[in-house]
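NADH-ubiquinone oxidoreductase chain 2
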Amino acid sequence: MSPTIYTIILSSLATGTIITMTSFHWLMAWIGLELNTLAIIPIISTLHHPRSTEAATKYFLTQATASAMILFSSMINAWNMGTWDITQMSYAPSNMLLSLALALKLGLAPAHFWLPEVLQGSTLSTAFIIATWQKLAPMSLIYMTMNNLPSMILLMLGLTSSAIGGWSGLNQTQTGKIMAYSSIAHLGWMAMIASIMSNIMIMNLVVYLMMTTALFTSLICSKSKTIKDTATTWTTSPTLAIIMMLTLLSLGGLPPLTGFLPKWLILEELIMQNLAPMATAMAMSALLSLFFYLRLTYTTTLTLPPNTLQMKFKW
């Protein structure tokens, strides 16, 4: 792709997100989301490979569906309440529809099936854009409509996302899919706290963006497409291996590291709101994600290339 076209596409991507984040009218928010989707399609399909074409198609269909649902819910709200203001979403059915549409747009379970497929079908740098930048616009909509979204639906979405992100990530060998399930689990934590305390959600989002950026740049530098590839990071650059280890442990949410802070605050806030069973379930699901982060850490820092076997030898 020529630099000029790439620049135009990337600036459209940025513009789309900014339009959504700064709009008060539902139509403008929808235009921003559509611009966002249309700008990333060519980036996904630059490889000219059946897998990337498939990924682009899947991404386009899910995002177009989610955008249409968002537009539909805001139309129902405008029809019943007489306002197109984003902060005035006060009609219950349109709020429920909106929360499901945003779940589909972000990739929250049970509407998460497109995310691992799309991230796997595109290059690591494209996957990085989808896992970080593309989350900003829908999260800003959640932030703006927060007071009206049904909290029970958000709590359930958060719990299922965290659990499914942990469970499904255990089974993966491709770093792209592992990052997708990691993203689903983290978004689950954000959805969980969104209706209770939105400033913790923003902090969680910022921490997630920083850690995911660090990890994706490490994976791109070491060209690690599978878990097996991460074992050779050490031979390329020992410093990178150490940074990768710390980032992975931080993503898993281990105490002295940054990633533990949002988890700690969210669990504390859930207990304050008398949602102790919910907090317990979230903590348990975090252990599942921690397992696959630890497995990646293990292959990255504690093994030498051919011997990545995690079993006892016969002799």
